[in-house]
Amino acid sequence: MAKAEPSQSAGSQAEDADVKPGLSEKIQVQVEFEGRSVKFALKRTALVRKVFAAAATAFNMDAASLRFAFRGKRLRPEDDDTPDSLDMDDGDTIDAHVQQVGGFL
């Protein structure tokens, strides 16, 4: 039994070294729309587009009529953006806007 304990702890140390800290943890992001905001918890490797439909529902809007941006970059549902790929931190904000159709003369 005495020999099994050191090998188990050595194995767990090796596993800990393989797992990069922060990659599997969840972060909270906030989506703001017309003065209202809602918070979502996302894994760092989850697709950000998961937030789009949930935010539209929370704001009582059609998901197709909203556009999302983070730090000035448009977030598109067809992109494979994750919090890691966008370098998001816990508490960051995604801005939601109504799609503008047409223009004004």
TrEMBL record:
Residues 1-21 are annotated as: Disordered. It comes from Dentipellis fragilis. Residues 27-103 form the Ubiquitin-like domain. Pfam families: ubiquitin (PF00240). Gene3D superfamilies: Phosphatidylinositol 3-kinase Catalytic Subunit, Chain A, domain 1. This is Ubiquitin-like domain-containing protein. InterPro entries: Ubiquitin-like_dom (IPR000626), Ubiquitin-like_domsf (IPR029071). Residues 1-12 have a biased composition (Polar residues).
